[in-house]
Predict the structure.
Amino acid sequence: MSNVAALFDVNASFGKPCTGGAEFPSIRDRLDTMNRLGISRALVWNTESAQNHALSANRSLLEEIHRTPGAEWRILPALTVSGLMVYERDGVELLVRQLRAMPCRALRFASGLVHLKLLQLEPVMRRLRGVKPFIILRHDQASAADILEFTATFPTVPVVLTEVIWGACAGVFDLMRHRKNVLCDTSWLHSFGAIEMVVKHFGASRLVFGTGYKSHNGAAIAALARADLTASQCLQIAHGNLDLLTGLGATPASQSRWTAN
């Protein structure tokens, strides 16, 4: 994979959902897949937080990263955030401490079984303003109206929508047209010319690299590798935009060379 730039995955997960069928039951499993596909860094969230207590799931995520050899500073936590934290004893303060434990500014919104709204995060986000966080969520985890209201209320908070496949593109692109702080990822953006279309209409700064299911077997990497873009645009999407959003600076192996089109 010498012709592929360093990759920073925005849409990685691990955990054992109550329904079974865990693709990545441990951080070791996620790290092994990253090594196989040549992914340098990944923002990982604990899927168990969608059904269990979010702060406890975050703690489990942080602990497993720490105890997995080779994981620290390659696997970064996308801590699950919930509007319910406001009503828990020291809930928001605990989230702040978790963010400081491995700072990368990434928060994952999962509405779970009770269908929480994105805008219910308002008190949490006001407390976290100094951290400069950004939100990651699957594109259909919140309604268009909810996303528009949240991004208008917090115009400096980037919101990354993931798993955008062709049928959802028109709606997501409309959100991106209305709000400059809405981005999308490449995890399911495999349709021919889709990456180029996003860059044409919104610029390379509005697109970040992500992977999908294990069964995709690196399809997002192939889609980016064959995209008709400049080398600079490919580097932005592959890792540059996430390097900036997380505040972590240059991705390891960022000197890897992308073959210019």
